[in-house]
Design goal:
By secondary structure, the protein is α/β, with parallel strands linked by helices. The protein is built from eleven helices and nine strands. The strands form two sheets. It has a six-stranded mixed beta sheet with strand order 2-3-1-4-5-6, with helices on both faces.
């Protein structure tokens, strides 16, 4: 008897959702930075759970990391929130992640104070409105407990539990791995019997091209400040795998980094090309670790004005659509 299902991870930006996904899977399937809205699409991480006699049966859990829940402004923001809604449509359990170190902005019920009512319509309140509409079990997962005292944790759990009838409550530290084994064991109890959605040895549905683009974008997020990270996108233009049985395999990759203004392009390139070289060098090391081969990485920067506001361009960044386009090109050959 096998249990299987989809578990969507929901939460505000910077709650540690991607760190949790990577810790559960045991592989780096999602990039992680300190900047909000690092995740822009749904990311699947597949976990095989071995049966424990007398405790729970074997299971395949497909965790779905989603973009951080936020009020959309640009078309990119709206596309990211659509990814959240899509993830919530096909799920068996939802994990609502909360950062134990951050003060929540929730309605306080003071109807006489307009400013407080405006603050009440916050992104935290927005998240709770989302989960109210769900008809599946919702686990409250309080992350970063290693950074707070036990005395502050109990009131937080009480505050959040009063806002929603959670199926389970789990304080964890995704970074340290605390509480994750208990979380997985409890998830298996809630999943239905079923078949595997992915082969046993597959840990994500993402193609290598997308993972490579994300690793490059991760370096941009880490090495640039201000508005550049949010205005950047990466598209793999060429991905040439090494020949079979090559003695010293080399993967050749060319990628375009898109930004919205000439000033951003200047920052990305840096004086004498120093910043672009640094981004490429550090990204290449991560890519080589991922692919298990030497990598020749070529980067160039393109200005695409206001691309975050243009539906067609934003849609073209979806790796699923990119795969479809590649498939069409192969069929035309």
């Amino acid at each position: 008897m096998l249990r299987s299902g989809f578990v969507s991870i929901l939460g505000r930006p910077n709650t540690g959702k991607s760190t949790l996904l990577n810790a559960l899977v045991g592989e780096k399937v999602a990039i992680v930075t300190s900047k909000p809205q690092t995740t822009r699409t749904r990311i699947h991480g597949v976990v095989e759970v071995a049966a424990k006699k007398g405790k729970y049966p074997a299971a395949q859990i497909v965790f779905v990391d989603t973009p951080g829940v936020h009020k959309p402004g640009s078309w990119l923001d709206r596309r990211m929130m659509q990814e959240v809604h899509d993830a919530l449509e096909s799920r068996d359990v939802v994990l609502l992640m909360v950062d134990a170190t951050r003060r929540l902005e929730l309605p306080d019920g003071d109807a006489d104070d307009e400013q407080k009512k405006k603050r009440g319509a916050s992104e935290d309140a927005f998240v709770f409105e989302l989960i109210k509409k769900l008809d599946c079990p919702v686990f409250l997962v309080i992350n970063k407990i290693d950074l707070v005292t036990k005395e502050t944790l109990a009131p937080l759990i009480a505050q959040l539990s009063a806002l929603h009838s959670f199926a389970e409550v789990f304080p964890i530290s995704a970074r340290k791995g605390d509480g994750l084994e208990r979380l997985v064991a409890k998830l298996v109890e809630y999943l239905p019997e079923g078949q595997r959605y992915f082969p046993k040895d597959q840990y994500t549905d993402q193609p290598e091209r997308f993972l490579v683009a994300e690793l490059i974008r991760e370096r941009i997020l880490q090495e640039t400040g201000e508005e550049v990270p949010y205005a950047s996108a990466v598209v793999i233009e060429r991905f040439e795998e090494p020949q079979v049985n090559a003695k010293n395999p080399l993967t050749r990759i060319a990628a375009a980094i898109y930004c919205e203004r000439d000033g951003q392009k200047a920052i990305l390139i840096g004086k004498g090309g120093s910043k672009l070289k640094s981004i490429g060098t550090n990204a290449r090391k991560e890519i080589e670790s991922l692919l298990g081969s030497r990598v020749f990485l070529e980067l160039h920067v393109i200005v695409e004005e206001n691309w975050r506001e243009r539906r067609g361009f934003v849609e073209s960044l979806d790796w699923r659509r990119q795969l479809e386009e590649l498939g069409k090109k192969e069929d035309e050959k």
